[in-house]
Design brief:
The complex is a heterodimer of chains A (208) and B (446).
Chain A (H helix, E strand, L loop, with lengths): L1 E9 L5 E3 L4 E2 L4 E5 L6 H8 L7 E6 L2 E2 L5 H11 E4 L11 H8 L6 H13 L15 H13 L5 E5 L7 H17 L3 E6 L11 E3 L1
Parallel strand pairs in A: 4-9, 4-10, 7-8, 8-9
Antiparallel strand pairs in A: 1-2, 1-3, 1-5, 5-6
Chain B lengths: L2 H10 L2 H36 L4 E5 L3 H8 L10 E2 H8 L4 E13 L2 E6 L2 H5 L4 E4 L7 E4 L1 H7 L6 E2 L2 E2 L14 E7 L9 E4 L1 H7 L31 H4 L4 H8 L17 E2 L1 E6 L2 H14 L2 E4 L1 H44 L1 H9 L4 H42 L10 H21 L1 H4 L3 H6 L2
Parallel strand pairs in B: 4-10, 6-9
Antiparallel strand pairs in B: 1-12, 1-13, 2-11, 3-4, 3-8, 3-12, 5-9, 6-10, 7-9
Helix pairs in contact in B: 1-13, 2-11, 2-13, 3-11, 11-13, 11-14, 13-14
The chains are: A alpha/beta (208), B alpha+beta (446).
Chain lengths: 208, 446
């Protein structure tokens, strides 16, 4: 599902990163571990196609995204890639449900509506749907952020430090949620973290 | 989700920002639409009112005042002229039609105009109900007056002296009867009560019931020189009944009336409205009258043009200021959009990860800019119309003129186009940063 080869990235006048080759099968999980500053977020941005690498190739679902043009890449990312950001990003002028709809391809479609409802229920967001995102608590924002990463049933979900701000109980809960949801939509799951509490949950691991 | 909806939500999520950036646009649009409408309507109304007549003949004074008073009915008359002299002019071969008008009384602020039925024909006024007057103290009512004073057929009223609503002597012994109602003409007739000339003469006949002993003095409250044609011989016996009249009449020191008491020569009219057979009359008659008689001839077309020329420069100045404000408002929209784009960098980057391409983001900003322009335009337009309505009410109460509160007209449509164009330019200038958006950097910056 996700394969990389000779992936390198250099910031202008900044550090240069060389990343190990990655191969991830469909619906498999991968944990990428490493301390701060080794380019974890950079790798996630490369993999999700929001940052072009200096060298090397990335394929998602047999599509070489490093060869895609800007417009095609935007479209590919929109349908096949889901990202759970380290910092929560929402459209602040919209409500919770509007944010979810915005992420769906065809929000008026009956099946997508059902998916939205079911997901909101599983993540405990159903009572918050008509609230403004700015009214949500930290934990509610975390769950909405997860929902936005996978509501469109992407081929692969990238999660950047999803547990960094959470206590042990919630950390456990979020990992479970991600795994369950990835299983429901048969997505591959890539988690990037420095949080060692997560390591025991994943067998497939890479250390940077 | 529709981009337009998102643009709308983005816009209303910061109402204070919205108001601030719209204030200038609203001011500019309301100013331009108000001034353009006002000058256009005044111009249109004035030219509609003067078209039936080529020349006005009245007492000496300001030609503009003569036109304003006798044709447009928004000023006091310059004085009176002898009917005999007016009739001499009417017989001139250049003259196609000559309509005498005489006035000086009002009913609740609306002028009672004594004239011949040609006057109604000249303005194309037709009866909506009833019949034309055929004897004294019968009156045909303009549509505007009828509506505002709720006058119907058979109603009677008494006029009061002078042209203003309050303070005049009431002629309560000579009630008028409404015999006809006119259809709306969009001209000055709508604001008039029209009767025959004799009514005006008789209303001011304070003497014996003898009809021959006419005297009339409309316009004398302006203190103009009437060549002493007023009859005052009745003063002594009429004194107690009409103390006001007495006071007013005393101003006219000269009393010659007794010399030709009881003759038609004594009759006066306020002015004579003339239509020429051909343009030659327009060239020769006014000059002849002004040089060789005690009368004054004025050309409504010329006077109104002069008046509009004066108003026009004022209109242009205000429009110039409004355009300057519009340009500044373009800047304010630009700065507002620029600020929005800066503030929403992360959201725009997020939308890119959702699969929205750069063109869609540009469209989003464009929608937002156009929404600003549209909302600003409409608020401004409505305020402009509101101001026009207030002005109309004022003009109505003071001059009896009514402005039409119309929908969007062609010039305003152009103006809307200019406003939208300014918004588009502001969007283009503000959105260059969207092309350079570094999603990765923006999204990892906290």
């Amino acid at each position: 599902m996700v394969t990389t080869k000779n992936l390198q990235f250099a910031y202008v006048g900044g550090p240069q990163f060389t990343f190990p080759d990655i191969t991830l099968q469909k619906a498999d999980h991968l944990l990428i571990l490493g301390p701060s500053g080794v380019g974890k977020t950079t790798l996630l941005h490369l993999l999700s196609g929001i940052l072009p690498p200096s060298q090397g190739t990335i394929s998602i679902d047999d599509t070489p995204i490093t060869d895609l043009r800007r417009k095609a890449l935007d479209r590919f990312r929109g349908t096949h890639v889901g990202i759970v950001f380290q910092q929560y990003h929402f459209i602040k002028s919209l409500t919770v449900v509007e944010n979810l709809k915005l992420r769906q391809g065809n929000p008026k479609d009956a099946s997508e509506k059902a998916r939205r409802q079911a997901l909101a229920e599983r993540l405990g967001l159903e009572a918050l749907l008509s609230k403004k995102v700015t009214q949500l608590s930290q934990g509610q924002q975390q769950r909405l952020s997860i929902a936005l990463g996978l509501i469109h049933e992407p081929k692969v979900i990238f999660a950047d430090e999803p547990t960094s701000n959470l206590d042990d109980t919630n950390c456990e809960r979020v990992i479970q949620l991600l795994k369950e949801e990835a299983a429901i939509c048969k997505s591959s799951l890539v988690i990037i973290t420095h949080d060692h509490r997560v390591t025991s949950h994943f067998s497939n691991q890479i250390r940077l | 989700m529709k981009l337009g909806y998102l643009a709308y939500r983005n816009m209303v999520s910061k109402p204070l920002n919205l108001i601030l950036s719209l204030a200038l646009l609203v001011l500019s649009v309301s100013l331009v639409t108000y001034v353009v409408q006002l000058s256009k309507q005044l111009n249109g109304q004035l030219s509609k009112n003067i078209t039936p007549f080529d020349m006005v003949v009245g007492a000496k004074g300001s030609p503009l005042q003569l036109v304003l008073s006798s044709v447009l009915h928004i000023d006091v008359p310059t004085g009176n002229i002898p009917l005999q002299e007016a009739e001499r002019i009417a017989k001139n071969p250049f003259v196609a039609s000559a309509t005498p008008v005489s006035y000086g009384d009002n009913y609740k602020g609306y002028r009672l105009l004594g004239t011949k039925l040609d006057y109604l024909e000249a303005y194309g006024a037709v009866l909506a109900d009833g019949r034309h007057y055929n004897k004294s103290f019968e009156v045909v009512v303009g549509s505007g007056v009828a509506q505002r004073l709720s006058l119907g057929l058979g109603d009677t009223f008494v006029s009061s002296h002078g042209l203003a609503a309050a303070g005049g002597e009431v002629h309560d012994d000579k009630p008028y009867t409404v015999v006809g109602l006119l259809k709306p003409t969009g001209t000055v007739i709508d604001q008039l009560l029209v009767c025959n000339l004799e009514s005006v003469w008789e209303a001011h006949d304070h003497g014996t019931p003898n009809k021959e002993d006419n005297e009339e003095h409309e316009g004398h409250d302006e203190g103009k020189d009437h060549d002493g044609k007023h009859a005052h011989e009745h003063e002594a016996n009429d004194h107690q009944d009409h103390p006001h009249a007495h006071q007013e009449l005393e101003e006219h020191a000269d009393h010659k009336h007794s010399e030709h008491d009881g003759h038609d020569e004594d009759l006066e009219i306020t002015s004579l409205l003339v239509k020429f057979k051909n343009p030659l009359g327009l060239i020769q008659m006014p000059r002849y009258i002004n040089e060789n008689t005690e009368l004054q001839a004025a050309l409504p077309g010329f006077e109104v043009q002069r008046l509009m020329g004066l108003l026009g420069s004022g209109v242009q100045t205000i429009n110039g200021i409004a355009i300057a404000i519009l340009i500044v408002s373009g800047f304010s929209i630009f700065i507002c959009l620029l600020k929005t784009i800066r503030e929403k960098r992360q959201e725009l980057a997020l939308l890119r990860t959702y699969g929205f391409g750069t063109p869609k983001l540009l469209l989003l900003v464009l929608y937002e800019g156009l929404l600003y322009a549209l909302i600003g335009f409409w608020i401004g337009w409505i305020l402009g119309r509101l101001a026009l309505w207030i002005t109309s009410n004022y003009l109505q109460s003071v001059y009896g003129y009514v402005l039409q509160i119309s929908g969007l007209d062609v010039t305003e449509l152009w103006f809307l186009g200019v406003t939208l164009l300014i918004a588009v330019i502001a969007v283009i200038l503000a959105s260059t940063s969207i092309f350079k958006l570094n999603i990765s950097k923006v999204l990892s910056d906290a």
